[in-house]
Amino acid sequence: MPSQTLFEKYGGFSSVSKVVMAFYDTLLDSDDIGPFFDEVDMSKMVDHQTKFVAMLLGGPASYTDHQLRQLHSHLDIRDAHFDELKVVLSGTLQDHGFDPEDIEAVLAEFESRRTLIVDDAHVD
Fold first, then answer.
1. What pLDDT, in 10s, does the model give residues 11-27?
2. What pLDDT was estimated at residue 124?
3. Would you say 106 and 56 are in contact if contact means Cβ atoms under 8 Å apart?
4. DSSP letter string over the chain?
5. What is the pTM of this model?
6. What separation, in Å, do the N-terminal and C-terminal C-alpha atoms of the chain show?
């Protein structure tokens, strides 16, 4: 029997959507991260982020490295911002009942994409 992905284990898109909504509730209140979303259509952002988190969990959605780099290239995202995103993502996953080892696996997937998201001209 094939092993179950984290995406399947935690309930698919409906569960991932709830995680992403909670994730943004926290991020939008952040003085450092919130301003990145001031002029953003949040319904589209939540949709894109739901697909991205689903991908991190081994789900069916995927973004290429090129797409991730292009989507973030106009933003001045620094390592400190990325680190805060990881902390918020970790807490949100914990709040939604993810096992500690599964949280670590998701964070490792996220970390592996740091260089695609962080503005390398401004690496801290």
1. 999 999 999 999 999 99
2. 46
3. yes
4. -PPPPHHHHTTHHHHHHHHHHHHHHHHTT-TTTGGGGTTS-HHHHHHHHHHHHHHHTT-S----HHHHHHHHTTS---HHHHHHHHHHHHHHHHHTT--HHHHHHHHHHHHTTHHHHS-GGG--
5. 0.88
6. 45
Tell me how far CA of residue 49 lies from CA of 1, 2, 53, 62, 99, in angstroms: 30, 27, 6, 11, 21
Q: Give, to the nearest 10 degrees, the angle between helix 100-111 and helix 42-56.
A: 110
Task: Dig out the tokens for 77 from the structure.
Answer: 């995202």
Residue 20: other Cβ atoms inside 10 A:
23
Per residue in 66-75, pLDDT tens? Answer: 999 998 988 8
Look-up of token digits 């069916």: 60
